[in-house]
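WARN no homologs supplied; continuing
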Amino acid sequence: YVKGIEDFVPSSQYRTSEHQNKVAEDICENFLTLSHGGKFHAIFATSSIPEAIAYYNLLKQANSALKVTCLFDPTIDNDGGHAIKEDALVEIITDYNQRYDQKFEMKTFAGLKKDIALRLAHKEQYKMVERTPGMQIDLLIVVDQMLTGFDSKWVNTLYMDKKMQYESIIQAFSRTNRLFGSDKPFGTIRYYRKPHTMEQYIEAAVKLYSGDKPIGLFVPKLEQNLNRLNDIFKEIAKLFGGKESASFEKLPDDPAERGKFASLFKELNDYLEAATIQGFRFDKLTYEFAHGQNEP
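OK structure emitted
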């Protein structure tokens, strides 16, 4: 093992307002893209109850349209701050009651947790909740709750500002693995804390629990999808005279080339859809990248 910079980064760095503000900014900026316009829901796993509370307040302030709630064990005094936790729980429950016309209290917290789970899973009284988007939950902030055992095809993104290892990684990632039509060909994991360390932990967990055969477990990353898009476009351009600046106004005369174009175009669209789900947007391209350079 060779030590890298993340071995020297203190955990306190991730409890700063600078880090938390950037995480909240990223979630707000990309939520509509990753959720397909709010169709799907997300879970945000944090490292402690105080951090969960901080993110709840940040996201409320940053985007009032984002339907956020928070769930953690009220009996656990995680990292101290008992009084702060109690006050935060009262605020969270009050906000939930006002948004969804409920009447939960501290003493009926178990009922609140059940209501959140059913609403996220679109089950029982919320079986058709997708028809009334205002009654859905966009983002659930947790510490450990709902990361094991909970199952919903409507959850497609897991945000993580915490480190995990082995079975915890597999269980948490599995919250997003139920496929749901063309809009959800895969789940999305977005982690913010020590990403290179997490990458090593993920590789170790997959190796252990897959029998060291992680075939087809992960889809290509965004950079790979964009590179493949460029390669396919070049192949298509050859069918239209060999120039990438071709107008593409008329299909090739050769039936074989037309068939090749149809196949390539379908492949191009598949990679574009995957890249879009991963956050790719044409309006974020720089002039150089848009004109065929290698660097975005």
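The chain has nine helices and five strands.
OK
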